[in-house]
Design a protein that fits this description.
Helix content of chain A: 40-55%
CATH topology of the domain at 156-352 in chain A: TIM Barrel
CATH class of the domain at 156-352 in chain A: Alpha Beta
CATH superfamily of the domain at 156-352 in chain A: Aldolase class I
Structural class of chain A: alpha/beta
Strand content of chain A: 15-25%
Shape of chain A: globular
Oligomer: homodimer
Number of helices of chain A: 19
Radius of gyration of chain A: 27 Å
């Protein structure tokens, strides 16, 4: 795409056609400016093929806001709609609607609350709550989901990979395997969720983190094609980057050629007073090669050199590598925990795609419409109870127990405040037989999770830095029960409704069933 | 991101840091302008969890070329590199290199050959061949892979879904589940690979295909929250779009409410002389609901209304739905093949993410460097023979047998032409015991697959339209053996080397092994 085409494809028309046909219908019905509320939430944690997450990390809001600020119906967008035709060749969108879009086709009427980026979040909890004129709030559905679903997915995967790597340095390497420009959103989300740095130069620059990377196999190959050797390539690299010398050792043979050559170059560096950074292993049995390489590096006096692992890593592969190192390192005369401490993880494809579950099923559901100045709850009955959204304008609370552990997220009606309740009753969202009562005495803190972000299109929120988002993530992870946090078969975190919200939902379901007869 | 940040993150720095550190090293060694050749290829077909593809569809080239045309080192990019520091705080990139980038930091020196978009392609065949000054050809690696890998992945998935849907109308619905702006690249690739239309409005506009879509559950919900009914919502939709009336029937209950209400509205339309388009099923047992809905529509005289299916479809789900319809339709008084002919598939998440294999492992490998005006082949030895790239400057040929069926892709040395050979010997790329001989008499056509695209940065290629790409795909699919084309356990298509290329590769591997000692 050339630039003007890209601006069209990434502007207000970056939405599904049915949002526009519905907006037009609302206009015809006189409903287009009626205030409506949509909740954005996901229904279940990503499940990467047998190992499901126990939490997600929220992300993507700032980029959504940036998009919303720019996006509006430009004359050329309106012109396009004017020329859209239906099956019989007649116009799909009438002139009066287009005229309305000319004057009102922006997100200046949108009010938004959201859970901040970086926070731990759970299913069926509204993460983003949109209120605004029905037509524009409807058009926002697709771009909102596009911006938020993917970043939540990747922040979550990054948090899990960081967890499996025991909080050691984690690098995001996935740009070449991303969905085009989406790789930038993925890198950002990875940085929020758990990656320390990214190899993606541009986005690292924009976000203020130094990009990471050294060299590829092609450098060694180029030297060899010119009748030089791997050792020559390594030495050349060391000459140019004497204080940043990290060498990829598997172009020819890791243990027979790569590591011995790296050690020779490191020895030269040491003689000149430089400290080599380390080696990278990118193929083969990584745990075994890491142990054998560590032994060779240790014997040569480079016991603090990093060993970067890459090649199709994810949280399960890292778990396996660390298990294998723990079991086998001592046999080769290597201290397992010392080796584990010097590992660095470079994760590409499996992080940027969230391999195993490459999309988050986040949805954006109408939960209320304005009637005479009050929010009238709306419901969608679904064949499975779990898929029926929680209706109405709601508050979201997180309850912490006396150990400061998050014990549940609670959805309440707008006029309820669990801080005022003597006993907090938590109802299971779908199973009517399940409920829990918490004494206020057992509750250390009740935290409202949603913050005001937009008021009639105006930003009323101090956008946090990525460092702040990371601190929030770390704090929230620290307050998760270890059972919820674990990588395989985590405990189910409770997301509950107050009895009044629960009751309202049941009544609406009954009403809807009757209404449809 | 704001616009200037986006331009930085999507410009020349949309690459991995190590490409820049390597380019700088080549500069230091005086190798930065030495002509080098990189081949882009993939090593294996996507395997979506037990069912591996037997072919891929090439895509993405035009968008890569658009990116290359724009991308260059702007003063602000150079400024950023100037301020990058290493571990000890000293500059990573020296001034003379940056000065060279200022004058030479674009892709104006790149020559490229490629297999056109829309064509069927196979593993280990160079799809894109890049020649140019080593520094800039190296920097191109990441963006090239980013642009091409994803579009090939999605074009391939779309072709498979179309195949399983027996060539019926296929709609791409995935924008909300894509990786941010990557959703546009995905929609384009889907249109090349097999989707007829997309719901993504902006990209449909840019590419010249009408976007598709009608309404969502939220429209019905909004009416219900305002004390109106599903029937009212359907009737309102029909009033606004009398000739484009396609109704989503599962908001309340598909068979009890949605379909009967749709039929009532369709009857009103018919009375007024309009032809209703159809219904959409988005949840539940789609085959069963399609049969029951078809029966109700048929009985009401709407036997030519479309039935659009959506909700987590992919090629396997469609296969199951069609099997189930074939087995069960007659039991409900519905003709299975008539029903299958009226189905339309709306595929979102599983298409836009290529669920099951969400990345193509395409690579970009140095295969030759210039030495005294000649291409000196370069090799990377890999632990597995299959991962060792085919070295040197090569030609790519497709051989068709007397039935016009593609029988093999053949890689040859630059000075070889199989059209001049009496007998064509095909050597297996890794298994030295396997080879096949073809008499020229048995070969109907030998087609060179690579076309000239860029000559020293200048476009020397007529960019085809997407319609042309689709015709190429259909023609190529038609010339695939049905065994290769099938969805599960396809036959393996032969990709072979000429004996001379095979011999050269063995010699280089031996040389590299010796050199490394």
């Amino acid at each position: 795409m050339k630039r003007p085409e890209r601006e069209t494809a990434e502007g207000i028309l970056f939405t599904d056609e049915y949002q526009l046909t519905m907006a037009h219908l609302y206009f015809r019905m006189g409903l287009h400016e009626k205030p409506a509320q949509f909740d954005h939430f996901f229904r279940s944690y990503p499940d990467y093929g047998g190992h499901q997450a126990g939490y997600c990390i929220n992300a993507g809001l700032e980029w959504l806001l940036d998009w919303m600020e720019q996006a509006h119906f430009r004359p050329e967008d309106i012109d396009y709609l004017e020329h859209q035709t239906g099956q019989t060749g007649s116009r799909l969108f009438q002139e009066d609607f287009l005229e309305w879009l000319r004057g009102n086709g922006s997100f200046s009427g949108i009010t938004m609350r959201a859970i901040p980026e970086g926070r731990v979040v759970h299913p069926n909890v509204p993460l983003t709550v949109v209120q605004g004129p029905m037509a524009m709030a409807q058009i926002l559905e697709t771009p909102l989901l596009n911006h938020l679903n993917y970043q939540i997915l990747i922040a979550t995967k990054a948090a899990r990979i960081r967890e499996s790597g025991r909080d050691k340095l984690l690098l995001e390497f996935g740009l070449r395997r991303a969905q085009g420009k989406g790789g930038n959103a993925g890198a950002r989300a990875a940085l929020i969720g758990g990656a320390d740095f990214s190899s993606n130069t541009g986005i690292s620059h924009v976000l203020g983190y130094p990009p990471k990377g050294t060299h590829a196999h092609s450098m060694v190959q180029a030297f060899m094609a010119l009748d030089m050797s791997e050792l020559d390539a390594f030495q050349a690299y060391a000459d140019v980057y004497p204080d940043d010398c990290l060498l990829l050792v598997d172009t020819i043979d890791t243990l027979e050629s790569g590591v011995p050559n790296a050690i020779r170059v490191f020895e030269n560096l040491r003689q000149k007073g430089h400290k080599p950074v380390g080696i990278r292993l990118d193929s083969g049995d990584l745990a075994y090669l890491a142990i054998r390489s560590a032994k060779m590096l240790n014997d040569a006096g480079f016991s603090d050199c990093s060993i970067v692992l890459s090649s199709n890593l994810d949280e399960m592969v890292i778990l396996q590598i660390l298990t294998q190192i723990s079991e086998e390192a001592s046999r080769y005369g290597v201290d397992a925990s010392h080796l584990i401490d010097r590992l660095v993880y470079g994760v590409g494809t499996h992080l940027i795609t969230s391999w195993g579950e490459p999309a988050l099923g986040g949805v954006y559901k109408l939960v209320a419409v304005d009637r005479d100045g009050k929010w009238q709850p709306a419901i969608k009955i679904s064949e499975s109870a779990a898929k029926t959204p929680n209706p109405g304008h709601k508050h979201v609370w997180r309850l912490y127990d006396q150990r400061s552990s998050a014990t549940a997220d609670l959805l309440s009606l707008e006029d309820e405040d669990p801080r005022q309740m003597d006993t907090i009753v938590l109802r299971h969202p779908t199973d009517h037989t399940k409920q829990r009562s918490l004494d206020q005495a057992g509750i250390a803190e009740v935290e409202p999770l949603l913050v005001d972000v937009l008021q009639d299109g105006q930003l009323v929120y101090d956008l946090p830095t990525i460092d702040t988002m990371r601190e929030r993530r770390e704090a929230d992870m620290g307050r998760l029960d270890p059972g919820v946090r674990r990588l395989i078969n985590p405990h189910i975190y409770h997301v509950s409704l107050t009895p009044r919200l629960w009751q309202q939902k049941q009544e609406l379901i009954q009403q809807a069933r009757q209404q449809s007869r």
